[in-house]
Amino acid sequence: MQKIDPDKLKLFSFLLFTKLEGAVTSAMVHLGDHLGIYRAMATATTPLTTAQLAHATQLNERWIREWAYNQAAAKIISTINSPSESPAIDDDTFFLSPEQTAVLALDNHPAFGMGMFHGLPQTMDSLNRLPESFRTGIGHNYDSKGEQGAVSIERNFEPWSNANLISAVLPKLDGITEALSAGAKVADVGCGAGGAVLLMGTEFPNSEFIGYDISKYALARAAEKLKASKLTNATFADPSDQPMATNNSVNFITTFDCIHDMTHPQQMMQSIRQAITDDGTWLLVDIKAHDSFTMNATKNPMAALLYGVSVMSCMSSSMSQPGGAGLGTLGLSANTAEQMAKSAGFSRFRKLDVEHAVNAFYEIRP
């Protein structure tokens, strides 16, 4: 064994435990969302002491205080040191900045970030199953995370989509807004809880929409939302029960953040080509990725997070059947997507000028 440099040893130990701090603080973020603490802070007109915050949430003050100290130390919430009204409690005053409010407490804000934290217990529970996956090579699909896993995906993706899909994305596609207004057949593959289908169905009443997903939990949620919407131009289906068309009859197909999760993405692209009309459009939305690990690690500040999420979710899903492709979260770069699309029978591939922190947007046509 080579001689250990004591300074490098300290630095590495510090680095390692910053990762543990992030995991523990993420657990506290989950609790802040789950228990409604952030929402209580967001609705307050003035900064709150922990006693006031405990009263507002009907939670125990001592637990609130320790939680708040973690969150303030991690700079997730803001604090003002202030004398306590009660000498028994060395209290401080806490509040959310406008930016913190948007990310932590406003479900309809495009920057809302609680979706992934919502499903944190289910994601971390996968650690109990992953050792066997490492041995056998077989992962687990998203339904292994239960109903809350589906809700997590819904809360993660819908706020941005609800704010931007109609106004900022669809107009970037050649002729799609006009086609949807006139009346078109549309399929959303990997529709999840159905947010995009219901959004487009409301905006374009002359078009017919169908969402496909294999998650029973997501489809159940989509059915509930469809009933509440009272839309008559939208439906949802499990493709094993109601397969996608194979007669080139669908004018517009969308896939949002799901191709890299699929066990057989190349086969899915071929199915999309069989379904779409010869003058149709496929909107592919997937994680921004480079062609190599080195490029991802040096160019993407979230690379470590995304590779870890891949092991616990995305790659696990894509290897949940024998022979799964295992693309992983960062496995569908623009070059890879274009090559796969052309192998499936598409000839035109164009990256859209859409700003998004995580996703890339592509227009693909026969």
From TrEMBL:
Residues 25-79 form the S-adenosylmethionine-dependent methyltransferase Rv2258c-like winged HTH domain. CDD domains: AdoMet_MTases. It holds the Pfam family WHD_Rv2258c. Residues 181-300 form the Methyltransferase domain. Gene3D superfamilies: Vaccinia Virus protein VP39. InterPro entries: Methyltranfer_dom, SAM-binding_MTase, SAM-dependent_MTases_sf, WHD_Rv2258c. This is Unannotated protein.
